[in-house]
Amino acid sequence: MSENVTAAKGFDDLLEANQAYADRFDMAGFDGIAQAGVAIVTCMDSRIDPLGLVGLKPGDAKIFRNPGGRVGSDALEALVLATHLLNVDRILVVPHTRCAMASNSEAELRERVGASAGKDASWMTFHAIADQERALREDLARVRTHPLIAEGVEVAGFVYDVDTGLLRRVD
Predict the structure, then answer these.
(1) Pairwise CA distance, residues 83 & 39, whole Å
(2) DSSP character at residue 119
(3) Which of 27, 35, 93, 124 lies most in the core, judged by the most C-beta atoms within 10 Å?
(4) Which residues of 58-85 are buried (b: 16+ CB within 10 A; e: fewer)?
(5) What's residue 8's pLDDT?
(6) What is the per-residue pLDDT across 96-110, written as a single tens digit (0 to 9) for each?
(7) What is the DSSP string of the chain?
(8) Which H or E element spans position 158?
(9) For residue 163, what are the CA distances in angstroms to 45, 96, 156, 159?
(10) pLDDT by residue (tens digit) across 7-45?
(11) Rounded CA gap, 88 and 64, in Å?
(12) Sign of the dihedral through C-alpha 49, 53, 59, 60
């Protein structure tokens, strides 16, 4: 029991912040659709504010994040649901500059994780990205050709520059 109590203390600051958030919370009863009709697939990198970088606010868009901002089967599942059930008619796929997934090889990622974990990570697949723009174009094609993405949905790819805040379109 003392281990759980100790672990819980590590979240006190976050729970305090949550209380302040709840005190000013104004989205009760919101239906969960994307008010601006936007879905964004991007990286989990904490330098990215997916809503802010395109001038949106909570409730405007559906956000799907993963290492590298790739469109795999989970992202496709989310996008299919978003385009049919959640008002999404525009999809942005947004990887970013200086991404660890694009600046390390699969072997380097396994080595770094293994060293940090103190365990063998050679069996884990991290999906390193050898050519970020090629990967983005493949992801765009994957979305555009998926048979269950709603017709008429606009799909675009951008690389987000973490040093300038700008998006650069990639077709």
Answers:
(1) 9
(2) S
(3) 93
(4) eebbbbbbbbbbbbeeebbebbbebbee
(5) 55
(6) 999 999 999 999 999
(7) -HHHHHHHHTTHHHHHHHHHHHHT---TT-----TT-EEEEEE--TT--TTGGGT--TTSEEEEEEGGG---HHHHHHHHHHHHHS---EEEEE-BTT-HHHHS-HHHHHHHHHHHHTS--TT------S-HHHHHHHHHHHHHT-TTSPTT-EEEEEEE-TTT--EEEE-
(8) strand 154-160
(9) 13, 10, 21, 12
(10) 557 999 999 999 999 999 998 998 999 999 999 999 999
(11) 13
(12) negative
Q: Classify residue 155 as exposed, middle or buried by CB count within 10 Å of its CB (0-12, 13-18, 19+).
A: buried
Say if CB 168 and CB 157 are below 8 A apart: no
Q: In this structure, are strands 90-94 and 61-66 parallel, antiparallel, or unpaired? A: unpaired
Which pLDDT value is given to residue 7? Answer: 54
Distance CA 96, CA 120 (A): 29
